[in-house]
């Protein structure tokens, strides 16, 4: 790795294949190289790193976990893959952890250098990127729920995701379709109905006459 210049390395990464010479040099001037040990964490779920990480060689796993430490593998990264771009685009914490399976070399591009490669914040393309990141985060969360939570937990999480804050309360406007909920959480309509009934009987949720659902403070996260 030390024998190649940053520009040489940039030119080998598919992500940067369409850059002009000037753009490639600008990126090359902004990156730093780092070697990660086997088992070392590159980015951590729930935290920010403010950088884009491009894998030059080696292999890493993208993982998500619950409060009990159970893990789900979302992806396996190899040379040319990259992580951290979602947090750089929407300025939110990482939705997953990336851990090296073997010794791996990476290029790291900081937030200021990354921002110079993006279109203006007011542009349509930037708005589309932010929309795609929102969808990706939702997909990661759905995969995690299906893999780690039981039906009760998946229903509770879906209700939380559907709710909006109204005068200090979490409310789902409009009737919550048991059939739609069943399709979202991957369970039968009958099972979802039982879970919803149990939540109501325990005072965790309240269904109003309008059909809207109010989520109480003791709603499980």
Describe the protein in words.
This protein is of the alpha+beta class and 221 residues long. It has helices spanning 6-11, 21-30, 85-90, 111-116, 124-148, 151-162, 178-185, 189-201; strands at 31-36, 41-43, 51-57, 60-65, 71-77, 82-83, 97-100, 104-110, 164-166, 169-172, 205-207, 213-215. β4 and β5 form a beta hairpin. α6 crosses α7 and α7 crosses α8. It is elongated. The mean pLDDT is 83. Residues 15-135 form the Cyclic nucleotide-binding domain.
- Secondary-structure element series: HHEEEEEEHEEHHHEEHHEE
Are there runs of 5+ residues with pLDDT below 50, and where?
Answer: none
Strand count:
12
The termini sit apart by 45 Å
Strand content: 15-25%
Detail the topology: elements first, then pairings.
Blueprint: H1 6-11, H2 21-30, E1 31-36, E2 41-43, E3 51-57, E4 60-65, E5 71-77, E6 82-83, H3 85-90, E7 97-100, E8 104-110, H4 111-116, H5 124-148, H6 151-162, E9 164-166, E10 169-172, H7 178-185, H8 189-201, E11 205-207, E12 213-215
Antiparallel strand pairs: 1-8, 2-7, 3-6, 3-8, 4-5, 4-7, 9-10, 10-12, 11-12
Helix pairs in contact: 6-7, 7-8
Keywords: DNA-binding, Transcription, Transcription regulation
Domain HTH crp-type: 149-219
Protein name: Crp/Fnr family transcriptional regulator
């Amino acid at each position: 790795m030390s024998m190649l210049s940053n520009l040489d390395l940039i030119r080998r990464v598919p992500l940067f294949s369409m850059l002009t010479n000037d753009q490639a040099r600008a990126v090359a001037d902004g990156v730093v190289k780092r070697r990660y040990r086997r088992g070392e964490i590159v980015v951590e779920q729930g935290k920010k790193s403010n950088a884009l990480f491009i894998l030059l060689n080696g292999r890493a796993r993208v993982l998500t976990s619950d409060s009990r430490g159970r893990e789900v593998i979302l992806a396996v990264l190899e040379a040319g893959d990259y992580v951290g771009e979602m947090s750089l685009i929407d300025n939110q914490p990482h939705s997953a952890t990336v851990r090296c399976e073997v010794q791996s070399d990476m290029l790291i591009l900081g937030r200021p250098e990354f921002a110079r490669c993006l279109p203006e914040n007011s542009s349509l393309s930037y708005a589309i990127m932010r929309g795609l990141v929102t969808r990706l985060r939702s997909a990661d969360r759905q995969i995690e729920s299906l893999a780690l939570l039981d039906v009760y937990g998946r229903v509770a999480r879906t209700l939380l995701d559907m709710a909006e804050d109204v005068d200090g309360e979490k409310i789902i406007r409009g009737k919550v379709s048991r059939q739609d909920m069943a399709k979202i959480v991957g369970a039968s309509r009958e099972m979802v109905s039982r879970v919803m009934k149990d939540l109501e009987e325990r005072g965790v949720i309240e269904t109003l006459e309008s059909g809207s659902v109010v989520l109480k403070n003791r709603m499980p996260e």
